[in-house]
Every structure is written in structure tokens, then in C-alpha cells.
Amino acid sequence: MQTAADAGDAATLLAAVPAGRRVALVDPRFVGHVHALRLGLTDPRFAAATVPGALTAQPEARGALLRALRRTTAAVGAGAPVVAPDTDPAPDDRTVPGRIAVALEAEGTAVKRPELGSLTAAVPTDAGGRATAESARDGVDDEAVRLRSAVKAHDGFFTTFAISPYSRYIARWCARRGLTPNQVTTASLITALIAAGAAATGTRGGYVAAGILLLVSFVLDCTDGQLARYSLQYSTMGAWLDATFDRAKEYAYYAGLAIGAVRGGDDVWVLALGAMVLQACRHVVDFSFNEANHDAVANTSPTAALSDKLDSVGWTVWARRMIVLPIGERWAMIAVLTALTTPRIVFYALLIGCALAACYTTAGRLLRSLTRRASRTDRAAQALADLADSGPLAQGVAAVAPGLRGAFTAPAVALLGTLVMIGGALFLPYGSWLTVAAAAVYVLLSGLAVARPLKGALDWLVPPFFRAGEYVTILVLAARSDAPHAVPAAFGLVSAVAYHHYDTVYRIRGGTGAPPQWLVRTIGGHEGRTALVAVLAAVLTHAAGFTTALTALAVAVALVVLVESIRFWVSSSAPAVHDEGELA
Prior knowledge:
globular; disordered C terminus
């Protein structure tokens, strides 16, 4: 930290800082909480940020900062109030940092202004103002505010009342010992994998241990995000780990339960894969709806208005959060049922609970979509197209037949294709080439569904229909096969493909767009993979080769997707985001 005599000296000192470092400018008269400065000056997610009396800039915004600072050099010293003679700026803009923040925004650089709540950040200009600011600062315990703000504002009932009251203190303990969120996230994953291993023993003691360890893993899962918010340690790697490890933990645990059940003489692999498919389809409904509507214009849905009214009634908020069976409630249910019952009962409860939750959330989104008058943006249409995961076959159809969709809407065409594919896999003789013909129809209809921009009121349903078409087809064909271990192999394939779809979502959320087209082409797109599995089922009828083929396909998809995903998330172009929401 260095003290500048005036604005010109500040510009000289800032210019001397190595180019790759963050810089900050703080008014020497600043009075406020230390955590207010943390929020304004240390959050890595924003190129520039400010609180009253302080301003920071990441390397990418330093050039704009220096230009704005030099424009003030001739008129004002760094320690004096700055007021343009022909304007009446807001109080926060009367200081040098405030004036520069306004100049940065005028130049086109986004400047984050974090919400401070009860925290104090002020630049008093006289003794009375300083006494008032100091009194306000001393009247609020910023450590208590820091602990409270470490907890997400919109968590589930179980997480809010059974986990967060003490996990926040674990987060602080970790912060004071120099532990990072990524280390806690990794510990959570390892604990969940050990839980899956305990469940795989197939013994009552193993099930009890698995349930306890799963809850410990969830406590750590909550702690890593709270630690990130407490210490403002957001990172690209943290975003990737946090986004993917929850799914890896849950699916690994499903596999552990299925292995344990088989050891006990009860094959529940179909139920395990069904639970994973249902959960993944639930998530893509959430993703697609949010991407289609987060920047829509003129949201006039009476359903949304009713939801806002219900939010003012406390018990309805918690009831609606519990109905969707979020991750806290779901993991608590899985843990308790694992310890007390059997894997089959666990999966039955999961399937019933997730199905009811899916019906509730999807019905609400349908009502909102049908009752609102909104214009979807090009960005939303592109996000839906990326989420559709159309490969070269569907893209080829879309390119040569953009006008053939006629009066049918995109979701109607996608639903028809999905029903044809799943119906063929389910009802046609197993191994029949008629199933391959159904796959050809699926490819054709998949291409027609995305032949036009997805801007219709219900076009957000297209990606969920495609996910159901692919995942359920793989499940059904594997389940109907006489090939040994075909369903576990299908579990691996769906896991690899689902990872690719989740990775696509988090890239879009970070504003960097979908994975590169070469990746989508290489792994075939949803329609290509579905057609390939149908062909394999026809060619390798009643043969162990079907299991081998599914396993090879799963390994190939996983390798390509993981290598590209890791390359992206550790690169400099990855978004430094932190997911404040939690998947249901």
C-alpha cells in the first residue's frame, strides 16, 4: 500500500504496478467496515468494482482506470472532494474513486457496486460526518454480517435450518487456516465416493456408514460455497468443480447403491439409471426455461404474479422449495433411507419424489409460458439451440429443409420424434431394424425441430424432449437386452453424455457460449448417439458385444468431453463465476 500526494502521483504509482496485478484506489478519508472494502476491492469476478471511497480494477480494466484518473489530474488532488462545476453528482461520486468510477462507466467499462446492506462505507468531509460514520460503523458487527452473507439467501428448508446454522462456522474455521473452497469441494467429493464404496458393500453396516458419510459430504458441499462467499475466493476452477462434482457425487452414489443391491441379490441397475435420467431431465427443464426467459422483454405472466404474492407468505415459500425436492432434501432422504431400508426402496422414493417435483415445476413453467407476452431474444434462441445439442445429422436436415416444419411448432415436432424413438425402443421387437427406422425418423424430426430459431413460447421444451429421447432410449434398449451388464454400461454412457450437457449449461451461464462445434460433431450430437445405439442393438442382438460396444462408446465420449472440458475450465477464457443458485 502506498500513499499518493495527489491524483497525478496516484496515476504514476498505479502505472508502475506490474501489468498482471489488480490495483485499488482508496480515499484516505474512508470510514467503514473492513468487509465493505473486501466486497468492493477483492471480488475476482468483476473487472472493476467500487464502494463509496474506494475503487479497484483488474488488469483488463487498468488502462481505462489510468485514462480516467489522468483526466482528473489537472483539476483535483487525490485527497480533496471532486465536484464538477456544472453537475450535481450523487454523494458517492464526489470522491476521486467515485468520480473515476463514473468516468469508467461513461467509457464503457462495467463497474460493479456490491450491495453493502448494514455495512458502512463513507467518505465524510467534516468532523460531524466522520463522527456519524464512525458511530454507524461501530454499531454493526461486520464479522456477524460476513458470516450471515456467507449463506445463500435462497436455500432449501433442510439446508437452511439443519446445515447452514453450523456449516458457516466450519467455513470460517477453514478460512482462518488457509483452506480454499476447492480443497473443501474435493474433500466433499472424496467423502461421497467413500460413501458410495460403503454402499457397494451391500451390508447393513455399509449402508449405515454410507448414509452418514453422504450427509457429511453434503455439509462439506455447503461449506465450500460458504467459504467462497466468506473469503471472496471465486475462481474458474472453483466454478467448474462446484458445477460438476455434485452430479458426480450423486451418480457415483447411485452406482454404489446398485452394486450393493446386486451383492444382496437384488438387481436395481434399471432403477438407478432411471433415477439419473429423471434427475438430468428435470435439470434441463430448469436450464432451458431460465435461458429462454432470463432476458425476455415484457414479462406479464399472471402465474409469475401469483408466485410473487405467495412469496410474501412465509410458509408457502418453504413448502414450494420442499416440493421441488432440492439437493438438501433429496440427499437427506437418500441418506436416511439408505441407512434404514434397502436400495430398491431408496430408488423407488427417488423416482416418485422426483417425478412429482418434475410435474410441479414443469406445470408452473408451462403456465408462465402460455400466459405471458414476451419477446425472446437472439441470445435466448442461440442458448436453446446450443442446449439442443444437435449433431451433424440434425444440422444437415435443418440446413436443407428449414421450411418443411409447416404449421407444427418446434416442441411438437421434437415431442413427436421423441415419442417415435422411445415407442420404437419400448414396443418393437428387440433388435428389430424397425427400431433403426424409428431412429431415422427421430433424426429427421430432430432436424426439423431446430430448422428455425427457437423463439416460440414453448420452444424451451425442445432440449428436454431431446434429453428424454436419448437417455430413455439408451435405458430401454439396455434393459431389454439379454447382454450381461448392459444396463451398468448404459449407466456409464448416460453419465458421460450428461456431463457434456451440464458442461454446456455452465459455459452458457458464464457467458462464454457452448462447447466448440468440433466437439459436438465428434460425439455425434444427441440424434447421432441415439441412432448409433439403435444400430448397435440391431447388429449385436442378444450378444455380449452390445455391452462392450456401450462401454467403448461411454469411454470414448467421456475422454473427448472431459479433455475439452478440463482444457476450457483451466484456461484464461473461462468465466470467474460462482453459482449462487442450487439445482433442484
